[in-house]
Amino acid sequence: MSLLSKLAGALACACAVSTAFAADGTFPDRSIRFIIPWNAGGSNDIAARQLQQIVAEQQNVTLVVENAPGATGAIGLGKVAAAPPDGYVVGMGTSSTLAQIAQNLTPLRNEQFAHIARVSTDPLVLLVPKDGPADLDAFLAEMKRNPGKVSIGTPGTNNLNHIFAEMTARAAGVGYVNVPYPGGSRVIADLAGKQIQAAVLKPSESKGQIDAGYVRPIGVFGNERLQVFPDVPTFKEKGYDVYPYGPLVQMAYVVAPAGISPDVRARLIEIFGKAIQSEKFKTFAQQNGFLVDDLTGAALDKEVRDVQTTLNSVATKVFKQP
């Protein structure tokens, strides 16, 4: 290779590096696709659209929310993993997909993503139609009277909602019918329409129908009652252990494709972190019964690894292995 060719190659590399740093310095200079791997109207979609509004108002950054449901979140997150690592495509990861990974039900792996910021930590509740069993004890008694026949709907399958549906049946000591859906909005619609007899959902995706009197919460999968539903008892206080294999957390968090530059990752953390910590989003969280914190970047990497480790253990004990 001639000296001139070498110099030209070096100059091209330098220009590429310079361009990359320039792009980082002005990121974002166009809209960011925010892929939500669930149906519109579910809790993750609702939270994403709230963040979309806050980010636009607060920082003049445009998020374009795109729903890509299917395979318990794996289809949408697959799009994120395959996107160019430039920061212009991000997505919403959830514990449900971590449960899929734990059971090798998806080719996705956490190493395919750069973790940005946790959006929510969500309690889960057991709900029945408005004229269903009066309380948790009555529901479990109904399950015992109808072994293997009572249906419980969940958004997705082989995930945390499914785990807690299974724990409900174990509390009754009988089998049941799990009815999976592509998102919480479909579950709550069929529950209100009495197409299913119960559901495991987040408060954020059921509160509207609860307030309207279409469905009722009868049990909380947690150690403490929820502020948003102070009269609803926990399974624990009723004497039922729904964490026999260790604590589980249902969470949602923003991810980008692995390989994004540190500068772009830091900017995404700034954009989403500022919105999540805003008073508007905190108020929204309180009204919808979920928790927010400031877990971002490397700390979120560790949290995801820890939740994955727990799910790897729990999945083998709860679900039938292929």
Automatic annotation (TrEMBL):
The organism's place on the tree of life at top rank: Bacteria
Keyword terms: Signal
Coiled coil segments of this chain: none
Gene3D superfamilies linked: Bordetella uptake gene, domain 1, Periplasmic binding protein-like II
Pfam families to which the protein is assigned, alphabetical: TctC
First and last residue of the signal peptide: 1-22
CDD domains: PBP2_Bug_TTT
Family label: Belongs to the UPF0065 (bug) family.
Name of the protein in its database record: ABC transporter substrate-binding protein
Lineage: Bacteria, Pseudomonadati, Pseudomonadota, Betaproteobacteria, Burkholderiales
